[in-house]
């Protein structure tokens, strides 16, 4: 420790000591003023910070109120709520920072000034006093006369006592000075370092907070760009509509009322009318009337429940009323009561009278048609494709999907935390989740987990089947195999989100609990799956859809179809479409001048523009399914398919396990291979560069293909022969898989090394269903170009009638194969 003032020097009381003391005293005085100023500035900063926090809290409350007001906009509400929570956390961090500033700067430095500097001042007072006493004693001793011995002795004694006292006090004073000079450094550095660490903690907490918020902000940023484009488009549309409407003639508002029995909202006509009350005063009130569901109703406010005037329009009549003072009145009379109403003009009165009369006629016609409707439910394709019939509902939503998925063992609780009654699912993992875990899964990204609601979303049959094939029990056996061995604690319901999120990331992202198989175990697994595929191939006849009997094509064992047996044609018709349905279907798409019509005959269909449907003329219809089907004039060439044979690979890997598990239709083994790091688009270079998705086509399972597609399999990846999954599904006659691949964006124009497209292969094989589907897909693409329903963003309008009809057709075939082959 550095000594500011020397103790030996202070006893001499030399000029050097006095100069040092004077310098120290001036420094301490200046230090006191600087510290007082710093404390006052700190107090001002803390007060300003508290005012800032108070204003910031009001701002955050304003954000929350805005979020509550935006409950109808889920994106705005959730985003603002999340932002408000984050800003509130920052306010809390600011509060902690200001509290730390008060403790480290204000309190600590004030204590140093009040205690240590006060002791220094008291010691200085004693030193000054004893210095004066010493000076007086020295003067008195010097002035004592030589001849007065008693005065000399007295002066000598006083000087001795004063010097002794001076030595004690000056030593204490020097000690106080040295201690103060040493302590000032530690106190100042201690307080400032504490304050800076408080800032470090503050900014670290803010960084961590906004790091968690950054993915949401990036997502909203992407959505914002699209919202800006949409807003600009809507603005232009509104301006155009405003200009168009402004140019209309509004001198007569009566023209705005029209009767429309086919209105989307079921309201045939609506508008304001005066209604005479049934009370004694016969008052007239203006009400909003409408004709809907064969009833005449009115309401005062939009939120009010409509009041029914006439429950069944078939039981009432309408007539003019000219015997009252008011103009433009008419009366609707039912067996139990009558209602007097008044329009605003004669034209409006006539419009309402005509609307009521038309509604009466429509009600009688609809009632009469109910008994005369033809039952078309016997034809599967009619139910799904004919726009005039009732569509067969294949997709499940709400409680139906929920009940089916939760019935799987282990699915009644959340896969990750055990929360009962989950309402969410990960469709690529095949597990059920609670709402908290679903949010964490969604934050992982779709390459790890694709989250869907079990109650709010619509579930396609293939997705529902996939969920039922896996489940929480199967997946946890894979992803939590080593959890107990590693001593990892599984989260419980109610645990903090941070703990649950850390566990889920360790489980699915880092896969820390997955048990890696040994080389021997992997080899046994692959060999077992290959043997299982052989067993499936030997019995695949009953799993594949029937096809017309080919001459003698050399197909692989798994491609044998029921059309080769005598009883196959008796089980069901060869084509899912009968001629009259094809006529309706193709005429539906024939709305563009670019497309030439395709007509169906009694037992066949004429050629299209490119002649690719000429082979359909040889396929039987459902009307003569029991007769012998006519054979094509020329036999199709033998299939180039070769049998899938297991061979001893050079190296066993998780990709090879996925390869054979896909062919063996074993979804648990496929999920295990993916958990072990298998590449979903793994290429078997020793087997024509085939992929797991192509082997899933060989296995004949549509759900296996769906599982691979949900896990980012490439639907257009080709083998060494240039054939993609769509080529293989066409060659095998797997209609449902063809639909699935078309639905997932497969390129039907891709050619193999023989320059053959899937449509060419289907025509050569005389497979009517697949040819029909491929032609529908091709015509749907042509319709997109012809109708031009593209938005400025370049995305196709999936709600157009053509697209909806096409997708309905695709989904029906997928559902049929699920019903018949899985």
UniProtKB/TrEMBL annotation:
GAP activity stimulated by phosphatidylinositol 4,5-bisphosphate (PIP2) and phosphatidic acid. Residues 266-361 form the PH domain. It is found in: Cell membrane; Endosome membrane. Residues 367-396, 524-568, 599-637 are annotated as: Disordered. InterPro entries: ACAP1/2/3-like, AH/BAR_dom_sf, Ankyrin_rpt, Ankyrin_rpt-contain_sf, ARFGAP/RecO, ArfGAP_dom, ArfGAP_dom_sf, BAR_dom. Residues 367-378 have a biased composition (Basic and acidic residues). The keyword Zinc-finger applies. CDD domains: BAR_ACAP2, PH_ACAP. It comes from the Eukaryota. GO terms for cellular component: endosome membrane; plasma membrane. The BAR domain mediates homodimerization, it can neither bind membrane nor impart curvature, but instead requires the neighboring PH domain to achieve these functions. PANTHER family: ARF-GAP WITH COILED-COIL, ANK REPEAT AND PH DOMAIN-CONTAINING PROTEIN 2, CENTAURIN/ARF. This is Arf-GAP with coiled-coil, ANK repeat and PH domain-containing protein. It comes from Anabas testudineus. The lineage of its organism: Eukaryota, Metazoa, Chordata, Craniata, Vertebrata.
